[in-house]
Design the sequence.
């Protein structure tokens, strides 16, 4: 099968339906190469402009014509992204010219309940991306390519000789010099060419000409180099009129996000980070990096995070290109649904571990909600204000913990609180101990009630903290439990924590 994209040069810049601009379809747009018109939008064709026209003549016919320079690199990038989507149908995909893809589908037809169903799904998938493919089938790659270009009906059951019998020679991708010589001899179609003696053709036009003909007819193998691109998502929208209201980007972002979700589903992947890039006149204006607490493929969550990031952008005034990209992925490991729905009466049983049928589902749902909340927080707040807590390599209480990234995973050790040798620690600890007033001496003050202590924590001579600490637990005014320590060298008391 060959996929032919005749309007690729135009569609990489202008894909109707991907932007919120309703007037785009009525604009006259032209793709220009070397000061000549190469491709035209429907509105531009109606003005009377034809491919090959000089730009100066085109502007004379249409003063509002929008001319865009042809970008070959952007076209190849679009084809590479389309290949990512086609992996759903077959892994054997090859580039076959600047506007063609070749698919080997003989081993995949049965998986899609027949050829017609497969063709409809391929066409629908690519159309959803904003591109217009023309499908052609043939027994050889070259034959399939010609069938796509000429809009021939399916000819995979017919020999290329019969399927392309009346095709003109200059449609068969032969050397232009050879075709010109043959036309001077009165040979213009494939059927006329095949009537000529093979030895004479080879002597006159050479072996490359005959090898091309043999590959077209299937007389010589035509192996294709199947591509194996890494899992990378890249899709963009080019706005003909610059956008000055970032909220109007929500509609095209939603279209790109839905395409990203379909990409993740087709490749069975999840991501923990993706980017939204805003550009104006080829220069990057803002790069929004969206990070998740855990790898996911939840598109509604992605859209919430993108909306939060857009609200934080204050410096970008105009945007003419929107890019949605991701290059870091993890294999998707979805949790299978429970056999029965998780009703309210079953939650306590599952939560306590007694209901094995629903425990994993219940835990997965709550972990998902917790991670979604954490993702929203870390994108709404700065990294300084949203962080996790991990163990620190220091014996002093205020330095025994450290700030870590919210998404960092650390091993957790289960501690039996009923039979534990670990010392008691308060839930709330001050980062820096606070010295008590001289009049507040717990040993003499009537409102302080001793409960436990002392517990000696040695000094840290290596960073200037050269005094030992003797920690006590005191109840103040028969209410709050305080964690206090005493330094014998200075005879002063310090407050360091509160027990809830």
Sequence:
């Amino acid at each position: 099968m060959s996929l032919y994209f005749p309007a690729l040069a135009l569609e990489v810049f202008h894909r109707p339906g991907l932007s919120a601009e309703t007037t785009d379809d009525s604009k006259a747009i032209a793709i220009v190469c070397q000061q000549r018109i190469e491709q035209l939008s429907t509105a531009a064709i109606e003005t009377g402009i034809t491919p090959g026209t000089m730009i100066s003549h085109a502007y004379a016919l249409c003063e509002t014509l929008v001319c865009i320079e042809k970008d070959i690199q952007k076209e190849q990038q679009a084809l590479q992204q389309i290949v990512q989507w086609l992996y759903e149908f077959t892994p054997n995909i090859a580039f076959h010219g600047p506007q063609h893809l070749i698919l080997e589908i003989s081993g995949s037809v049965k998986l899609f309940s027949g050829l017609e169903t497969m063709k409809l799904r391929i066409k629908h998938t690519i159309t959803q991306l904003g591109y217009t493919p023309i499908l052609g089938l043939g027994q050889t790659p070259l034959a399939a390519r010609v069938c796509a270009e000429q809009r021939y009906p399916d000819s995979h059951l017919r020999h290329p000789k019969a399927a392309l019998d009346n095709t003109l020679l200059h449609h068969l991708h032969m050397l232009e010099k050879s075709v010109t010589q043959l036309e001077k001899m009165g040979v213009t179609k494939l059927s006329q060419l095949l009537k000529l003696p093979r030895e004479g053709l080879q002597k006159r036009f050479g072996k490359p000409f005959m090898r091309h003909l043999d590959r077209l007819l299937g007389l010589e193998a035509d192996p294709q180099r199947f591509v194996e691109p890494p899992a990378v998502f890249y899709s963009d929208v080019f706005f003909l009129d610059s956008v000055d209201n970032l909220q109007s980007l929500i509609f095209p972002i939603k279209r790109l996000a839905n395409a990203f979700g379909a990409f993740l589903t087709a490749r069975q992947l999840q991501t923990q980070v993706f980017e939204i890039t805003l550009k104006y006149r080829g220069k990057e204006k803002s790069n929004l990096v969206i990070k998740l607490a855990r790898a996911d493929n939840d598109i509604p969550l992605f859209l919430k995070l993108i909306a939060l990031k857009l609200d934080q952008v204050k410096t970008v005034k105009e945007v003419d290109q929107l890019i949605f990209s991701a290059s870091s992925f993890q294999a998707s490991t979805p949790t299978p649904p429970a056999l029965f729905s998780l009703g309210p009466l079953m939650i306590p049983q599952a939560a306590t571990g007694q209901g094995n049928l629903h425990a994993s589902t219940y835990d997965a749902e709550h972990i998902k909600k917790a991670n979604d909340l954490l993702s929203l927080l870390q994108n709404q707040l700065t990294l300084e204000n949203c962080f996790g807590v991990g163990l620190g390599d220091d014996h002093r209480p205020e330095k025994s913990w450290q700030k870590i990234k919210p998404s960092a995973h650390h091993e957790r050790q289960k501690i039996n609180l009923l039979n534990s040798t670990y010392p008691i620690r308060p839930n709330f600890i001050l980062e820096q101990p606070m010295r008590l007033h001289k009049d507040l001496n717990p040993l003499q003050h009537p409102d302080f009630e001793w409960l436990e202590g002392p517990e000696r924590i040695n000094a840290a001579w290596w960073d200037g903290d050269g005094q030992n600490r003797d920690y006590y637990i005191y109840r103040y005014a028969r209410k709050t439990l305080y964690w206090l320590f005493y330094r014998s060298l200075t005879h002063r008391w310090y407050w360091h924590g509160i027990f809830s």
In short: The chain has four domains: 2-217, 233-331, 344-380, 425-499. Residues 344-380 form one domain. The longest strand covers residues 283-296.
